[in-house]
Amino acid sequence: MVILGINMYHPDSSACIVVDGKLVAAVEEERFNRIKHYSGFPSESIKFCLNKAGIKIENVDYIAIPRKPQARVLNKIFYGIRIPKMTFKRVQAWQKTFNVKEKLSQIFEIPSEKIKAKIIKVEHHLAHLSSSFLISPFDKAFLYSHDALGDFASTMWGIGEGNKIKVFEDIAFPHSLGFYYTAITQYLGFLKFGDEYKVMGLASYGNEFLDVFNDILQIKDYKFELNLSYFLHHKKLIDLNLEGEPKIDILFSEYLEKKLGKRREKDEPIEKKHENIAFSLQRRLEEVVFHLLNSLYKKYNLDTKNICMSGGVSYNCVLNGKIFDNTEFDNVYIIPAPGDAGLCIGSAFYVWNCYLNNPRDFIMEHAYYGPDYSEKEIEDEILKRKDEIILRGFKIEKVEDEDLLCKVTAQKVSEGKIVGFFHGRMEFGPRALGARSIICDPRKKEMKDILNKRIKNREPFRPFAPSILEENTAEYFEKSHPSPFMLFAYQVKKDKQDKIPAVTHVDGTGRLQTVSKKTNPLYWKVIKEFENITGIPCVLNTSFNESEPIVNKPEEAINCFLRTKMDTLVIGNFIIS
């Protein structure tokens, strides 16, 4: 049984392939066309997934799409009458989902009637819940999804047990934690789609809570509401931008500026008041989410301490890291792409487990489901660029022995070198997790500034992340719950903060990746060798890119290496330094 999951004409378009209940491949379209958060049709992603599985499009049994036009139709009609342009745009999006077979027939150059797959449409947030639970390690869990908007809802919760999901309730447009966070992000001068994570980093520099945020985002029993006086998204078109890089209109109103003062323009300096606004934004989000989770735990008299979380707000690693101390839940599972990229996986497994009623027998323990490249492909690319590489003053070494490769890599990191690390299958989701990473020495406090100056060009208030050996987590962090996908921020123990200052944020936290010997043995071995040299079982890890999506192909890795001031590139069994 072959199921193709497609998130299309929506930000972070992606595809996955599930064969007999096992995930074989998953990837975002941005990794191929190099357009961040691409929102069109994931043609190249579909081609890759089918090719990886060795399957032709004619042999796909089901196509799962995470969009259901019938969901909340009255709400859609109400706002459609008020905002006709919104109706037009959404009808365009719906029409494109109806024509998926025609689109596939064009891509694969075959008649559409040869594509026999049955199309199943799964409601947006149900696909989110499915993505978090059906591939989790839990037989039973509370399910919670929160984002900006999908099928006219922003939040949904329910219970999962075995291969069944029961939805309890949802919160519909216009009330949305995602729009709340995005609106204040825009007010603070960060206008690109997906900039919310920057403000999460900025929040750690604030120290004064502004009471107005209690008015902006209000608790209503076991739910929340936005005070719509501060917002515009319910009054005008939210441009879906069905193709290309997503863009979003300004969401906050003049009333917000009246209360908080004039908005920050993107090139203006960041002042203390901006830090306090970011702090207040983050703290109020945490208060509301923890209130909801605790209220819902009591309301439904839950008999499980497991929770599966999804939706774009689940990228908020600061919030995620505080769940253990502020809610009734002890165990949390979040997939590596809890945002909209993960919808392809959620819709596909919904079809396999819920629609077709198959038992669950797959756990997503790692994120390495993207493209990989053979040693020959890597060597051919290096040979093609050999003269250019040598002319730039680099030497090329081939290291056949894996242990030696890891030792040399660790040695270079310990010497303060910036190392690009390209190995195996690319990560699914936005985090570099040791397959397409840049790694550095976490002991050097100045490494953060060096990285920004030489490669990343990031705002100085944004932290870099530690990759730590899973078995050493409790030695360095106040929490030891696994964080394989870099989606939790924990407090670094006070006596360890001066040992890893480059990955300890101003508030004493680290957004860590716990590295398992089972799921990424080579990366684990590099960190272990670094520990053997330095006594420190972690490295600084950031994504292998420079103002672009994470590199995918060997060619892109070499290009990024040569145009930046990276010291070393470890790619396959080659070291260029």
Describe the structure.
- With 577 residues, the chain is an alpha/beta fold.
- Helices cover 36% and strands 20% of the residues.
- It has a nine-stranded mixed sheet, with helices on both faces. A five-stranded mixed sheet has the order 3-2-1-4-5. Strands 8-7-6-11-12 form a five-stranded mixed sheet.
- A hairpin with a 2-residue loop joins strand 9 and strand 10.
- Helix 3 (73-82) crosses helix 4 (84-98) and helix 8 (196-203) crosses helix 11.
- The longest helix is centred in the middle third of the chain and has 28 residues, at 272-299.
- The relative contact order is 0.12.
- The model has no long low-confidence stretch (mean pLDDT 95).
| Rounded average pLDDT | 95
The helix tally amounts to: 21
Percent range of helical residues: 25-40%
Question: In what range is the share of β-strand residues?
Answer: 15-25%
Large-scale geometry: globular
- Give the uncertain stretches in residue-range form: none
Radius of gyration: 23 Å
Given the helix and strand composition, which structural class is it? alpha/beta
> How far is the N terminus from the C terminus?
47 Å
Largest sheet, order of strands side by side?
Answer: 13-21-20-14-15-19-16-18-17
Give me the count of strands: 21
Please describe the biggest sheet, giving its number of strands, its sense, and whether it closes into a barrel. 9 strands, mixed
